[in-house]
Design a protein that fits this description.
Layout: H1 3-13, H2 19-37, H3 46-52, H4 57-61, H5 67-75, E1 97-98, E2 103-104, E3 109-115, E4 126-131, E5 135-138, E6 147-151, E7 154-159, E8 164-169, E9 172-180, E10 184-187, E11 192-198, E12 202-207, E13 211-216, E14 220-224, E15 232-237, E16 241-244, E17 252-258, E18 262-264, E19 270-276, E20 279-285, E21 294-300, E22 304-307
Parallel strand pairs: 3-7, 3-9, 4-8, 4-10, 9-11, 10-12, 11-13, 12-14, 13-15, 14-16, 15-21, 16-22, 17-21, 18-22
Antiparallel strand pairs: 1-6, 2-5, 5-8, 6-7, 17-20, 19-20
Length: about 325
């Protein structure tokens, strides 16, 4: 990702310009790069470059056509929105109850995790570990600091300070997490998951069930398990993605990247690649058949690399992975 792209994404993340205006600037930048690649000497002057980076509305709105069309094309409808916020499914009156440890969670329950912001405006990290059975446990810290809210078939947990390290039982039908500023790790979950982090990394390790994950400004690492069979999707804005595919897994990985490179190790499967400067469409099939589970990948400003487990340069744990005490 170029320095100009990083500046644009930073301006959006800080709220200095809107997401639509940011996409407009990225589009203008991509058009300039495409002309340069074609041999046209259209390099912007320093003064013009300053105008392109200006947050003044009139100059920005004069460049290009409708921006939402560009967003949809770049992200394939994945819908990364900088201001995306989930509505809390509960009334917060009463403050909830302190969490019992362990907490019994009935079959079919949706588990929702919402962190309260600390004084610095960011949440701690979240570590989720899939376990059999129906008991939810806090693995570090004081469980009584976690507040529990219930509503029909949903349980919500909220906490105020520090990290949350939690065992998620198989009785949970889906786990939903939305945090700001912290890293999020989902390790061998036995439930479907919906994961959101703004400004933090997301690591999905040993994935068996389906997942839907998005992060803005953070990297993402996904390792699929041999038994993964449920189609899933991931998306980042401004962060790189690493995907590990075990030998023998039949799957389809469909990537659309705007402003980032896409690569796959040799011998993974059949590759189809197309696109234009700044925009890449990349499809990898690691097996044959019509009913392959599909992982849809969308990224804006970040690169995507696909390989075998353990083949990562330098080895070690995935970015944002569990930390040993």
């Amino acid at each position: 990702m170029s320095d100009e792209q990083r500046v644009i994404l930073q301006m959006v993340s800080e709220g200095r310009i809107t997401p639509d205006d940011g996409v407009k600037l990225l589009e203008a930048l991509a058009r300039g790069e495409e002309k340069c690649c074609a041999g046209v000497p259209d390099r912007p002057s320093p003064r013009r470059r300053r105008l392109l980076m200006s947050a003044g509305g009139e100059r920005i709105h004069d460049m290009g056509h409708m921006l939402r069309t560009v967003v949809h094309d770049a992200m394939g409808g994945a819908g990364i929105e900088i201001g995306e916020r989930e509505e809390d499914p509960f009334e917060m009156e009463g403050g909830g109850l302190p969490m019992e440890d362990p907490l019994e969670i009935p079959d079919g329950t949706e588990l929702v995790l919402r962190s309260r912001l600390c004084a610095s405006g960011c949440a701690g990290d979240v570590f989720l570990r899939g376990v059999p059975g129906s008991l939810c446990r806090v693995l570090s810290g004081d469980p009584s600091e976690v507040r529990v809210y219930r509503d029909d078939d949903t349980v919500m947990l909220r906490w105020s300070d520090g990290d949350l390290d939690l065992e998620v039982p198989a009785s949970v039908a889906r786990v939903t997490v939305d945090i700001i500023g912290g890293d999020l790790v989902a390790d061998a979950l036995l439930s479907r998951s919906r994961l959101r982090s703004k400004g933090g990394r997301i690591t999905i390790a040993d994935a068996v069930r389906g997942f839907d994950a998005k992060t803005m400004g953070g990297a993402m690492s996904v390792s699929l398990a041999d038994g993964w069979r449920e189609s899933s999707r991931i998306a980042t804005m401004g962060g790189d993605i690493r995907i590990d595919v075990p030998a023998g897994l039949s799957a389809r990985i469909s990537v659309r990247s705007f402003g980032g490179d896409v690569s796959a190790e040799e011998g993974l499967g059949e590759v189809t690649e197309s696109g234009r400067p700044g925009s890449v469409r990349f499809d990898l099939a690691t097996g044959s058949g019509e009913d392959l589970p599909e992982l849809k990948v969308r990224t804006m400003g970040g690169g995507v690399s696909i390989g075998r487990p353990g083949s990562r340069d330098g080895g070690g744990e995935p970015a944002g992975g569990p930390r040993d005490e």
